[in-house]
């Protein structure tokens, strides 16, 4: 299997608070990996370290055979290969839906206006938001915003999509529409790394589940194993708490 | 005070009144624009993230210190005094500054000092998620500022800029101390010649009121335009109309 991102001995501390300790794991091409774990276990921090919104304090992040933590590595170029979807959507408030999905293509990838527009429309269609191209973010519901945010990330044609609890800020009735889009992306063979508390969803879509606790990876494996037949005591406890 | 007298003053002096009002508007508009640009520059300088102990950051700190001194001086002293100091200060070096230029410089610097704080507030009030989303798609700090943050800051500071414009229309009256021929100075000459102080100044009063009222209406309109239509069009509707 082709490795897209490989993480070796990753550490992250805020001051003297160690949030990630010796994290090792790999995301392979076409794979859907779900990161689960209780609040404060470091899932978001791990995701943010991967696209360097946080600077790791130690370890390596290997992308295409190169350690991107080397000083001379072009961080901005690397980031264009990762699509990030935030819990709070973070759509650009000054741009309409279409422009949200175009601005990165235009200014970072230097695509032509026409090409950027076509690509944006293609992905807005994928998420079912192509009819709202003129709307401003504040005019959309949470679920609609998140779908646009997914299209914005996809429009950069990234190699990996990173999702940080994409449905946690949504009203319950809007969770479904976002998960449906993500399921579809998974079926289409996109490489995805998803932090989620939606256990049912994780079981259905993921090829692999990674369970984190207190900044370390406790257990990982196929969903049947980790969710149904966990080997570690801490995993069992976590599942008992969340699945009841 | 009678209406006839007002009419006759107007008949005799309307070109002077208009010229004065034009001067006032010109000074107010130009200096507000200059002030907004100064404020924007200072606001951006004050919010550049500092890396610890690089040469660049020491340099930036020195510039920011100088800018802070400027802001404090211009906010902490009356504009009428600033006008005297700038105009006669420069004249003392044997260089007679154009009075209009001096006026624009004083009001512009004054406005800039106030706007700096509004801009800084406008920048820090932008949600950090906006920066992160821009960074995450590979934008640099400069691109993020130009395409994402500053357009939102512009919108945020527009009301403050409008207030400042209205203040400048009124407060430019103090520039009469350096004999700039704006509306107040003009009125002084008119009233000095006809000795009808109440009527002459009543006309001036109404002219100021018209200018500030129109300015505030225009600004409100611009704000509305920037916010876009309230109802966005769903594309489908357009298709339906075609059939
Ligand atoms: N910028 C920061 N400064 C200091 N501490 C931080 C910072 N960000 C996160 N932390 C700490 O790191 C730990 C892990 O946080 P993180 O957000 O990664 O957890 P999480 O697994 O995503 O939790 P949740 O499920 O609640 O989102 C927490 O104890 C948090 O307080
Ligand atoms: Mg989190």
TrEMBL record, chain A:
Sequence ranges assigned to domain ABC transporter in this UniProt record: 5-239
Gene Ontology cellular component terms for the protein in this record: plasma membrane
Keywords: Amino-acid transport, ATP-binding, Cell membrane, Membrane, Nucleotide-binding, Transport
CDD domains in the record: ABC_HisP_GlnQ
Family: Belongs to the ABC transporter superfamily.
UniProt organism field: Ureibacillus endophyticus
Pfam families listed in its UniProt record: ABC_tran
Coiled coil: none
SUPFAM superfamilies linked: P-loop containing nucleoside triphosphate hydrolases
GO molecular function, one term: ABC-type amino acid transporter activity
Membrane topology: Peripheral membrane protein
This protein's name: Amino acid ABC transporter ATP-binding protein
Protein's cellular compartments: Cell membrane
Keyword Nucleotide-binding found: yes
From TrEMBL, chain B:
Subcellular location: Cell membrane
Entry annotated with the keyword Glycoprotein: no
InterPro entries assigned to the protein according to its UniProt record, in alphabetical order: AA_ABC_transptr_permease_3TM, ArtM/GltK/GlnP/TcyL/YhdX-like, MetI-like, MetI-like_sf
Keyword Transmembrane helix among record annotations: yes
Transmembrane segments: 20-44, 65-94, 100-119, 201-219
PROSITE patterns hit by this protein: ABC_TM1 (PS50928)
Membrane topology listed for this record: Multi-pass membrane protein
GO cellular component terms, A-Z: ATP-binding cassette (ABC) transporter complex
CDD domains xref list: TM_PBP2
Superkingdom, natural source: Bacteria
Residue intervals of the ABC transmembrane type-1 domain: 21-219
Main location (coarse class): membrane
Pfam families reported in the protein's UniProt record: BPD_transp_1
Family: Belongs to the binding-protein-dependent transport system permease family. HisMQ subfamily.
Alphabetical list of PANTHER family matching this protein: GLUTAMINE TRANSPORT SYSTEM PERMEASE PROTEIN GLNP, MEMBRANE COMPONENT OF AMINO ACID ABC TRANSPORTER
Name of the featured protein: Amino acid ABC transporter permease
């Amino acid at each position: 299997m082709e490795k897209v991102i490989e993480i070796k001995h990753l550490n992250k501390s805020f001051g003297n608070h160690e949030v990630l300790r010796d994290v090792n794991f790999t995301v392979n091409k076409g794979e859907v990996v779900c990161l689960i774990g209780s609040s404060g276990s470091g899932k978001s921090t791990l995701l943010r370290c991967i696209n360097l919104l946080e600077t790791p304090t130690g370890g390596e992040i290997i992308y295409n055979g190169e350690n991107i933590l080397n000083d001379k590595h072009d961080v901005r170029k690397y980031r264009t290969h990762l699509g990030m979807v935030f819990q709070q959507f973070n759509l650009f408030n000054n741009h309409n839906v279409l422009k949200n999905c175009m601005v990165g293509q235009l200014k970072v990838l230097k695509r032509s206006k026409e090409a950027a527009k076509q690509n944006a429309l293609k992905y807005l269609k994928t998420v079912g938001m192509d009819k709202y191209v003129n709307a401003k973010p504040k005019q959309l519901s949470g679920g609609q915003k998140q779908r646009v945010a997914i299209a914005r990330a996809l429009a950069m044609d990234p190699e990996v999509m990173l999702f940080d609890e994409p449905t946690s800020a949504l009203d319950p009735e809007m969770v479904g529409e976002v998960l449906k889009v993500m399921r579809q992306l998974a079926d289409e063979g996109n490489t995805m790394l998803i932090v989620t508390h939606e256990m049912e969803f994780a079981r259905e879509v993921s090829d692999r589940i990674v369970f984190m606790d207190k900044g370390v990876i406790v257990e990982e494996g196929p969903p049947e194993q980790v969710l149904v037949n966990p080997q570690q005591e801490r995993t069992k406890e976590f599942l008992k708490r969340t699945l009841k | 005070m009678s209406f006839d007298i007002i009419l006759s003053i107007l008949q005799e002096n309307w070109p002077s009144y208009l010229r004065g009002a034009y001067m006032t508007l010109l000074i107010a508009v130009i200096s507000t624009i200059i002030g907004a640009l100064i404020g924007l520059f200072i606001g951006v300088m004050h919010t550049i993230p500092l890396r610890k102990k690089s040469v660049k950051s020491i340099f930036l700190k020195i510039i920011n210190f100088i800018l802070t001194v400027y802001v404090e001086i211009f906010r902490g002293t009356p504009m009428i005094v600033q006008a005297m100091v700038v105009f006669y200060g420069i004249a003392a070096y044997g260089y007679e500054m154009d009075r209009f230029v001096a006026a624009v410089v004083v009001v512009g610097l004054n406005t800039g000092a106030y706007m700096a704080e509004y801009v800084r507030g406008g920048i820090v009030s932008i949600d950090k998620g906006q920066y992160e989303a821009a960074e995450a798609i590979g934008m640099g700090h400069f691109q993020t500022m130009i395409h994402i943050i500053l357009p939102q800051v512009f919108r945020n500071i527009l009301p403050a800029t409008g207030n400042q414009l209205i203040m400048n229309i009124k407060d430019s009256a103090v520039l009469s101390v350096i004999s700039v021929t704006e509306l107040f100075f003009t009125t002084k000459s008119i009233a000095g010649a006809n000795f009808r102080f109440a009527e002459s100044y009543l006309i001036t009063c109404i002219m100021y009121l018209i200018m500030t009222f129109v300015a505030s209406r225009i600004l409100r309109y611009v704000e509305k335009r920037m916010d876009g239509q309230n109802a966005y069009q769903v594309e489908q509707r357009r298709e339906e109309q075609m059939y």
